[in-house]
Amino acid sequence: MSGFKKFLMQGNVIDLAVAVVIGAAFNSIVQSFVADLLTPLISAFGGLPDFSSLKVTIGRSNFMYGNFINAMISFLMVTAAVYFFVVKPYTHVRERATAKTEPTTHDCPACLSEIPKNASRCAFCTTELTAA
Fold it and tell me: Does pLDDT of 48 surpass 70?
């Protein structure tokens, strides 16, 4: 039982649990945005107040393709929000952190002191340097 408790108290399990809860809350916000704001705005151009009422009846079966349209809009909104608010900023920060800069100094071949890259003479041992 202590091994299970140790597993549950690991940081990555707790972080994952927090992420799931935040993701669920974020999903409800996006669902509300789609159902209450975006769908009526889109349907204003089509004259239909809500997509969920769209259906096709074949025999005794109702195919509620309007609910599918609402779900697709929600999915696209969630994925766009995750991409633009999580993935893109994280990628930008990671690229900036790992960006390689051109070195402005190098070692003197005679005394191994660090000198400016464009120096023509070492400031420490006065060795004349050849252009690299």
Answer: no
Say how many CA atoms lie within 13 Å of 48 toward its Cβ: 12
CATH class belonging to 2-98: mainly alpha
CB-CB neighbours of 17 under 10 Å: 11
Taking Cα atoms as reference points, which of 75, 52, 72, 71 lies closest to residue 62? 52
Q: In this predicted model, what pLDDT tens digit does every residue of 51-102 receive, in sequence order?
A: 777 889 999 998 988 888 878 887 887 788 778 888 899 889 988 888 777 8
Does the predicted model carry a pTM greater than 0.70? Answer: no
Q: Among 44, 21, 23, 36, which residue's Cα sits nearest to residue 73?
A: 36
Task: Determine contact, residues 76/41, Cβ cutoff 8 Å.
Answer: no
* Domain range list for the chain: 2-98, 102-132
Q: How far is C-alpha 116 from the chain's CA centre?
A: 39
How far, in Å, CA of 117 to CA of 107, rounded?
A: 9
Residue for token digits 């140790």? Answer: 6
